[in-house]
Amino acid sequence: MKKPAKKVRRGIKWLDLMFGSRMAWRKKVNLRELDMVRREFCILGQISGNYNKVNEIGSDNTLAEFGFCVSEGYAISDISANEELTRAWKKALRRK
Q: Which pTM does this prediction carry?
């Protein structure tokens, strides 16, 4: 996976544009439960309350480029890449 921190920064910028300031959407994210493998606990699942709204964003490739999933097809089997992506989101969101 290409640099997850860079993708997460892109994702944060996109979320800021879509949902307002980081604080507006950040309040909805529970970092303890954050898990990029599980749809209900990933960033978009927690913010929207319904992961199925992800289809409004675009293709799997688009989601991957913004750090919302590891790669095309949601490569859940790649546990280390998903854990790395989850850690990158947690680190970025802990910064204020």
A: 0.82
